[in-house]
Amino acid sequence: MIKETSIDFLDALQQIAKDKGISVDTLLDALANALLAAYKRMPDAEDFATVTVDPDTGEIRVYGQELDDDDNVIREWDVTPKDFGRIAAQTAKQVMTQRIREAERDLKYEEYAGREGDIVTGIIQQTDSRYTLLDLGKVEALLPQAEHVPYEKYDHGSRLKAYIVEVRKTSKGPQIVVSRTHPGLIKRLFELEVPEISSGVVEIKAAAREPGHRTKIAVWSNDPNVDPVGACVGARGARVRMVTNELRGERVDVVPFSDDPVELIQNALAPARVREVRLDEETGTATVIVSDFQLSLAIGKEGQNARLAARLTGWRIDIKSDTASPPPETAGAPEPVGARKE
Fold this sequence. Notes:
The chain is built from 11 helices and 14 strands. The chain is an alpha+beta fold.
């Protein structure tokens, strides 16, 4: 019986389990394995043996084993060495420390495994040419340069929300890769600010983003009594403003979603007013007719509004003014599919 040393070990394990949030059983198993490894290195050690640690008394025993041809134990006897406590304590300490670290890493990984698509808040630790490091509390997250928003500054010590794109298991613990450019960040931010989205009453059906500049989202309500755009914008724009502030001034357009592609395209090109939409389903192209004074607004600065509308709807959008595009009948073209006029 190696009682005093075992009790010391047990007390230490219980304290570690409490401090680190690791189960006592996990640490006892690690201790038994470490003690068995220590015993195997002793002279005259049995070829087959097992170590037991009593979780109540801290008593440590080593048993030699006789196995049959199928590796079943047919006999056990006590082979605990007299000086095993001293040798085991010296040998097992390093092994136990390693096992505890492994258990901590596993716990941290399990906490974040499968959380791709979630949003996290971290404290900016450092920034270099490769990535920005975020402190999430128990772990750190990497914000690669490719996931940085252009012209966005990441000041040391400031808080930052980011979108989890990948969680990797490494020998040093979980490596969490996050993004500030992913469209999913927009959806998660709206979920935080709009109860109707988090409850499922309002859905974000589509999103298109040019990080740091502008985003468009198309929203739908599963309740006819709830205005999806109004729910997302909030009273006096309070909700969408919170999202914009988190995105550091990035403009966010909220438009109603529609299963009708003509109506969706019209909505997506807001704030421009569309006079007519002609769809060519074979090429996936939508020819959009607007008034002369609406042309620049529909296209947007450097084509941004049209580009985002195309991504949001999935259609190639060709915008023309009404003076540059005669009606289909005068041009000898067939009647446009789903064409609408305001």
